[in-house]
Design goal:
Helix content: 25-40%
Number of helices: 5
CATH topology: Rossmann fold
Strand content: 15-25%
Shape: globular
Distance between the termini: 11 Å
CATH class: Alpha Beta
Largest sheet: 6 strands, parallel
Order of helices and strands: EHEHEHEHEEH
Radius of gyration: 15 Å
């Protein structure tokens, strides 16, 4: 059985709830991606900060140990869809660790934009990984049944 990591970034806790349900169903290890400098909890202020970071391809410094992603062969990577791509802390995470020969499974929360360009952006950051089909969730309440169906589709063992 593979060792599973569910790594996520979540400002407003939507992606966190999604990540928790994946961990619950897979028995994987749940870990939060934490930037050194947190975003504003005011939506409009955070949106301005993020838009600026994405346009500059900025990767914020993370407060994560060097072995954060070590020892896992299947890695779920969760992010909100921010301006058609992943949150900058998630890009920092992808650039910080080596995911060669790992299964990468993206998931995101969104307000109507699905994955946007996120899949292509993750593939560009992890060219030597096996990128499996992800799940984009556009809603406040996580649907455990839909997540279970998705996990079965991508053949990830459920505890």
């Amino acid at each position: 059985m593979s060792k599973i990591l569910i790594a996520y970034y979540s400002l407003f806790q939507n992606t966190k709830r999604f990540a928790e349900e994946i961990a619950n169903q897979t028995g994987g290890t749940l870990k939060e991606i934490i930037p050194e400098n947190k975003y504003s909890f005011d939506y409009n202020t955070a949106a301005k900060e993020v838009r600026n970071q994405i346009s500059r391809d900025f990767c914020p410094k993370l407060m994560l140990p060097d072995d954060f992603a070590e020892g896992y062969d299947t890695i779920f990577i969760g992010s909100p869809n921010w301006f058609k791509t992943m949150a900058p802390p998630v890009k920092s995470f992808l650039r910080r660790y080596d995911f060669a020969n790992k299964k990468i499974i993206p998931f995101c929360t969104h307000g109507g934009g699905g994955f946007g360009q996120m899949i292509e952006d993750i593939a560009a950051e992890c060219p030597d990984s096996l990128l499996l089909e992800g799940l984009a969730w556009g809603g406040g309440t996580v649907n455990a049944g839909e997540i279970q169906k998705w996990l079965e589709q991508i053949d990830i063992g459920i505890d």
